[in-house]
Amino acid sequence: MTDSVRRQQPRVPEADPTVGVGVNADWQGEPRHRLVAIGDSLTQGFQSLAIFNTGLSYPAIVAYELGCVERFRYPLYEGLGGLPFNIEFLLRDLEARYGRTVELRETPVALFRARSLMDRVEDYWERGPGHAVPSTTAIMHNLAVFGWDLRDALSKSADECRERIEAPEDNLIKQVVQNACERAALRVLPTRPSAAGALTQLGAAARLGEETDGTGSEHGIETLVVFLGANNALQAVTELNVAWSEDGYDDLSRKGRFTVWQPQHFAAELRKVAAEVHGIKARHVIWCTVPHVTIAPIARGVKGKIAKGSRYFPYYTRPWIDDDDFDPRQDPHITGDEARQVDDAIDDYNDAITAEVRHARRTGKDWYLLETCGLLDRLAARRYAEDPSARPDWWRPYELPPALQALTPRPNSRFLAGEAERRTDGGLFSLDGVHPTTVGYGILAQELIQVMRLAGVQFFRPDGQTRREGPVHVDFDRLIRHDTLINRPPGNLDSALRVIGWADEALDLFQRVFSGF
Question: Is 377 exposed, middle or buried (0-12, 13-18, 19+ CB in 10 A)?
């Protein structure tokens, strides 16, 4: 169990990206690489249990607004809805075969169809065209890999991932791509020349930092984004199991049995990551705080708030289990007290991240803090927006961009729902209840742009040459057009929760995918 002291109030978000420390800088020349990102699924662009829309990750959205998207390198996962298994792909397949609703009499054949689809996806990535790793000597600008935590960023390389990929088994029961994270990483981390296979995420970023164009810049990277740490607590809600870290938390082979890192263990790993980032030649570094994972709708609070003014529900279970049906003796869950402990640990994580940024700025590094934790708190529907008595003094609702305000209904943090081929609730989280939709990633991109502008980063029009003056706003109309869960949701979205719950219970889908994180 965590040794952190119980907080009487949630951590107050840091409103100043400079954390109150000024830095005097006289930049010369133009860095070769305008934007590089290190992170996990949130930075890679994961949605609906799969990585597939990498061109609409938040770093790619920022690169578009920077005017350098044509030169921004990111991996592709284009086969059969992505890797490891896309729930939206499943819903659309079932809709094409059965219409908006799977009738009770059709359930056995629908289950067989879902298993067949999972088998096709598994074959594609383990033995088919997806098995082949593209060979390139150019290092990606988006270096994020889903499922990775601080230790993975420190230790995993392409060579390490190859060694960890087991011989695939065509398992008729466990039909989820084996070693999906490692397979994804092989499309991110450099593999050529052979010596590059030893580079970690941090090592690859350092290599980019060494690349200059002779313009007089001492930095190869203009802006480096570091967004790590969510996976040091996420499995508490994806597995609905709180297992605190112990000895072995920093061992790739042993850390998988923990779902939440004790704050002192997180801080120890963070110091090692920060030490490596210190050595990367990046003009600006933006660190993102860790969101409160208990807000994600994959773990829905049931049975009403514990007490008036409380942030927490007595139990958190799967979103497809109704309050009336929930039985703590049978249904998977964590308790409200466990959720509070996880949040307290994350608050400690974020204090540690803030301290690293403050220390670096005092030594002359142009580091910044992006309060992604505070951002999600301000978007939290059931925790704060719908319960004024639970709001801390600092809380203010997040003002959505005009294009999202114009949508009906306005997007919120509830689980995505629909009726008659239109969205009726949610919209900020995709169908896995953990990762954002495309417009959700757009909000994160907008907040990152604000910090970059504070750092003095110049933005350009899509031609890459025309300067953009004044505030830089993400083109949300463009994102809405590309966001299929917003503009063209599956016709069976009205029964999506039931279908997803059925798939999870019958196929153990969520457990199998998230256990690989």
Answer: buried
Report the C-alpha gap between 105 and 392 in whole angstroms: 50
Give the side-chain half-sphere CA count within 13 A for 154.
18
pTM beyond cutoff 0.90: yes
β-strand partners of 315: 302, 335
CB atoms within 10 A of CB 170: 10
Residue 517 is which amino acid? F
Kindly give the pairing relationship between strand 83-84 and strand 334-335.
Answer: unpaired
Contact 503, 459 (CB under 8 A): no
Query: What pLDDT digit, counting tens, does each position of 377-412 carry?
Result: 999 999 999 999 999 999 999 999 999 999 999 999
Distance CA 294, CA 342 (A): 8
**Can you tell me whether residue 433 is helix, strand or coil?**
coil
CB of 222 closer than 8 Å to CB of 283: yes
Closest C-alpha to 181, from 156, 198, 205:
156
What DSSP element (H or E) covers 83?
strand 83-84
- Tell me how far apart the alpha carbons of residues 212 and 195 are, in angstroms, rounded to a whole number: 21
d(CA 56, CA 149): 22
Bridge partners for 467 per DSSP: 460
d(CA 493, CA 420): 8
The three-point CA angle 497-415-403 to 5° equals 130
